[in-house]
Design a protein that fits this description.
Layout lengths: L1 H38 L23 E12 L4 E6 L6 E2 L4 E5 L2 H29 L5 H26 L2 E3 L4 E6 L6 E2 L4 E16 L6 E7 L1
Antiparallel strand pairs: 1-8, 2-4, 2-7, 3-6, 4-5, 6-8, 8-9
């Protein structure tokens, strides 16, 4: 009986030794694994933060500045300058009256052709009534209508010429030196003054390598 107790005791001790040895061995393996993993050096990565910014490129070229609009003022009809409504070097607005050419003759012609137009209109009205009563032929009525159309066209022509006696600024700008005085006789070839718009300028330049011209607008 005592012998059996001794056997069981030895088996229990042996089993305890094996479990203890196995536990110690596992702890050593885990410790060695951690040491190996910790010995590896960390990977270093360099980076940068991207931010939006304005990209500019400079290009140096030789060019010239020109006015966006410029012209020499002229009168479309011939006559004596009756009045000048601008000063040299002053700013004028589009549609502003710059000078007047004497228009007395044109006004007289307009009154004459307008009277003829009224008479032709009345004659055509009467001819239409007579045609409806078959008192005249269709040909006679057509002649009266043609007379009216001619008188009306003549009236419109003289009215257009009369409007040209008043010269207005075609665009806003600066008036330069004037070449005429009040009382000067001008024709369609007579230069009155220069008008320049400098609110917007054009840059004209050339590329020496490609030999071409580019125009662009610059606001001031």
């Amino acid at each position: 009986m005592k012998f059996k107790h001794i056997i069981y005791s030895l088996l229990a001790v042996g089993l305890l030794v094996m479990v203890t040895y196995r536990s110690i061995d596992n702890k050593k393996e885990n410790s060695q694994g951690k040491q190996k993993g910790g010995s590896q050096s960390a990977l270093t990565v360099d980076g940068m933060v991207l931010k939006p910014q304005k990209f500019s490129e400079n290009l140096s070229l030789s060019g010239s500045l020109e006015a966006n609009e410029q012209l020499e003022l002229r009168s479309e009809i011939s006559g004596i300058v009756e009045k000048i409504n601008f000063k040299e070097g002053s700013k004028v607005l589009k549609g502003q009256i710059l000078f007047l050419v004497n228009d007395l003759e044109l006004r007289a012609r307009l009154a004459k052709v307008q009277t003829a137009q009224k008479l032709a209109s009345e004659n055509m009205r009467r001819a239409k009534l007579l045609l409806e009563k078959e008192a005249i032929s269709q040909e006679e009525y057509d002649i009266s209508e043609a007379d009216f159309q001619f008188a009306r066209a003549e009236s419109q022509l003289v009215a257009a010429q009369l409007a040209k006696a008043t010269v207005r600024a075609p665009f806003s700008g600066i008036i330069g030196l004037r070449y005429i005085s009040q009382g000067s006789y001008v024709t369609s070839s007579t230069a009155i003054a220069s008008l320049v718009n400098t609110d917007q300028l054009k840059i004209t330049f050339s590329n020496a390598h490609d030999s071409f011209f580019i125009s662009s607008n610059v606001n001031f």
